[in-house]
Design goal:
This protein has 239 residues and is α/β, with parallel strands linked by helices. It has a single domain, classed as TIM Barrel (Alpha-Beta Barrel), CATH 3.20.20.80. It has an 8-stranded mixed β-barrel, surrounded by 4 helices. α4 packs parallel to α5.
């Protein structure tokens, strides 16, 4: 009886060894993660607007948030009512800050650029670069959207002496058209726990907005959560 039990255990062990050998032999060698799955340290952040109402920024900082992008305006039609408060209080709490503008490609491009220029003209040297948020086409073809966004970028860059960031997602550019924007750092919008899908022609993301349902102490209700592809020191260098 004991001999049969020993033989049975040995047979199971042989089966497991054979399965492990097969797995090793068939596993792809030098496999690389998909393009969106960048390997390395990340730094947590958020992006906010008046939707988050009054934010307890010191509490947000204590919760581990190290940077925040703050909405300046929605095109030319709506200045964010909480921008000035969030801009001042985030810095006071020690959270690295940057401003973004929701871009309306069917509105005056220079005027939208000038909103950002006026708000950031006195920016501190450690503020994050300004962001153009491209989510809608305004009824225009995508080549025109990219061309007009590139004009916004050029005007802001020339006036402020800093390289703007592009916020966008793959859905808008599923058929291409963003080639004129490729040189800009990408802040990617893709809500997933898996590898994010990069819009062509970008090969990597610098910032990634991975959910719009985040919970952060100091903020009532949901908030967008972001990651920076690097350490806090590298985030400082990004400025």
């Amino acid at each position: 009886m004991v001999r049969k039990a020993i033989l049975a255990v040995a047979a199971v062990a042989l089966c497991i060894a054979a399965a492990l050998t097969l797995l090793v032999r068939t596993r792809p060698r030098h496999a690389r993660p998909p393009p969106g799955c960048q390997v390395g340290p990340t730094t947590p952040g958020i992006d906010v607007s008046y939707y988050q109402e009054t934010i307890d920024w010191p509490r947000v900082r204590r919760a581990g948030i190290r940077f925040a992008f703050i909405r300046l305006a929605d095109g030319l039609t709506q200045r964010d009512a909480m921008f000035a408060t969030n801009w001042a209080e985030s810095r006071r709490a020690g959270v690295a800050r940057g401003a973004y503008l929701f871009f309306r490609p069917d509105q005056d491009v220079a005027a939208q650029a000038d909103l950002m220029i006026a708000a950031m003209r006195g920016r501190d040297g450690d503020d994050l670069p300004p962001v153009i948020d491209i989510e809608v086409d305004g009824g225009l073809d995508l080549a025109t959207v990219a061309e007009r966004a590139a004009a916004w970028i050029e005007r802001v860059r020339d006036r402020l002496g800093v390289e703007p960031i592009v916020y966008t997602g793959s859905d808008l550019w599923r058929n291409g058209g963003a080639e004129a924007l490729e040189p800009q750092p990408l802040w990617l919008a893709h809500y997933t726990q898996n590898c994010p899908a990069l819009p062509s022609p970008w090969a990597r993301w610098t910032f990634w907005q991975h959910t719009d349902r985040g919970a952060v102490p100091g903020i009532q209700g949901p908030v967008d959560l972001d990651l920076f592809a690097g350490t806090l020191g590298e985030l400082t260098a990004e400025r």
